[in-house]
Amino acid sequence: MEKQVKEKNELWEWTKALLIAFAIAAVIRYFLFTPIAVDGESMMPTLEDGDRMIVNKIGYKIGEPKRFDIVVFHAPEQKNYIKRVIGLPGDTLEYKDDQLYINGEPIEEPYLDAYKAQITEGTLTEDFTLNDIDVSLDSNTIPEGYIFVMGDNRRYSKDSRHIGLVNQKEIIGNTSLIFWPFSDIKIVK
């Protein structure tokens, strides 16, 4: 009789431990971190199609997006996109002769250097201003609560130039850690 009680207690303890482990995993995945797979080539050469990354979901609950963060957000097509933050609220933004200008100042984009070196004709990023993209803006300025995002593979990226400014409420989180494939584990900038 005592042996049966001991076996039942042991089974109950294992069941509790598993339930607690699953609950903790669910909380972590739903509220803190979640995996995502890169789908497509719009962030090449920084991210490759099929890379698996960890999305930090709490970073923007306590802070704001920073320029050049890689973010995951809900796009209009009921799909999650992964892009780089280029413009922040209050910024004016322009591309001219393959050079990014924010608030009238040229800004370096070192993550594009390898791609720019491969181009034999034209530019990586065509010329534009915010008003070219969204004529409803009162000025060439990103309004509060919005960001401007672009993929690193500028010629083949569907980003703010096509879908418009991204409402910060649509951001799931930021990401910088590739965890799969194992041969490519790294932190990207």
TrEMBL record:
Main location as per UniProt: membrane
Enzyme class: hydrolase
Peptidase S26 domain: residues covered: 11-180
Topological relation to the membrane, as annotated: Single-pass type II membrane protein
Catalytic activity entry: Cleavage of hydrophobic, N-terminal signal or leader sequences from secreted and periplasmic proteins
InterPro entries, sorted: LexA/Signal_pep-like_sf, Pept_S26A_signal_pept_1, Pept_S26A_signal_pept_1_CS, Pept_S26A_signal_pept_1_Lys-AS, Pept_S26A_signal_pept_1_Ser-AS, Peptidase_S26
GO cellular component, one term: plasma membrane
Transmembrane segments: 17-38
One of the protein's GO biological processes: signal peptide processing
Localisation per UniProt entry: Cell membrane; Membrane
UniProt keyword terms in alphabetical order: Cell membrane, Hydrolase, Membrane, Protease, Transmembrane, Transmembrane helix
Catalytic residues as annotated in Swiss-Prot or TrEMBL: S42, K83
EC number: 3.4.21.89
Positions in coiled-coil regions: none
Pfam families reported for this sequence: Peptidase_S26
Family affiliation: Belongs to the peptidase S26 family.
The name this protein goes by in its record: Signal peptidase I
Organism: Lysinibacillus capsici
Lineage, uppermost ranks: Bacteria, Bacillati, Bacillota, Bacilli, Bacillales
